Amino acid sequence: MKKKVTVVGAGFVGSTCARRIVEADLANVVLIDIVEGLSQGKALDLMESAPVLGFGSKITGTNNYSDTANSDVVVITAGLARKPGMSRDDLLKANADIVGQIVKRIVEFSPSAILVVVTNPLDVMSYLAYKLSGFDSRKVIGMAGILDSARYRYFISQALSVLPSKVEALVLGGHGDLMVPLASYSTVEGKPVSELLSEEKIEEINERTKRGGAEIVSLLKNGSAYYAPSASAAKMVESILLDEDEILPCSAYLNGEYGIDDVYCGVPVRLSSQGLREIVEVKLTEQEKERLYASSQAIKENIKKVL
Ligand code: APR
Questions:
Q1: Angle CA(249)–CA(201)–CA(214) in degrees, nearest 5?
Q2: What is the tens place of the pLDDT at every residue in 79-94?
Q3: Catalytic residue among 3, 20, 42, 175, which?
Q4: At what angle do helices 199-210 and 145-160 cross, to 10 degrees?
């Protein structure tokens, strides 16, 4: 039987994520939004592309949580997006209210679902979803590391004039200004980036990666990134539904791993049909450890503001 994925929020990130899931024939999708007609209109438009594109998955739009019942995976994208000059943390309180309401309804109708949290600030929202759902922490995972690493990989590929897919790279920590790009785990066809680019260039790319979201916000002027975020969330859904064993950086609940406790923070993980299979502990330098710790503590401060 086809799997069922609910995407909450039919805005830019949610509808693009839903589109990627049905076009890849990963699952049937229920798209739900608070605005009447929005998810229904987008779902119908997407279904009308099925004859042209040839996918067999179904997408339906709704405003009613009973239609989301028994979902295998729920992607939460509902909330406010950043406007120019706004930090992700400015969104904190408004989005905490929205995510809180949504989690309660999801738990009511899909008590066995795996939650993928995208709404920003997503490390905080993941913690909130974990606490309010009462789910095992392995069933609540935040999307950020794949996106931040993808930006990092793209910038490295540009600097070296190679295909983006040839670059492997890892960005850990919170999805914010304190994220930790790891040049030591960045390679191009197996070669460490440190052997291919100068320290200054790597530092410049690190900084651009940290500001990656803000760069898009300042260009769009009226909204935030959604193509790369939706691709990253869809990648998590794929990894969960297909039980892939790939290592992906995601926001996960840490319980002593990396010397960090009781917070959601970006680390390499393996996903499976049960949710988070394992947290992978890679070797870090002292400086990288300190930065990861600092990033996790900044998330903790924000958690205190909403819980
Ligand atoms: N229930 C369901 N949907 C809601 C609710 C709610 N309580 N509150 C808001 N929404 C919907 C809005 O109606 C809107 O359609 O969430 C959608 C958000 O879409 P956009 O404004 O287009 O925002 P988007 O760019 O998709 O970003 C959504 O993802 O990357 C993050 O920072 C980003 O937190 C933001 C989220």
A1: 55
A2: 987 777 777 677 899 9
A3: 175
A4: 140
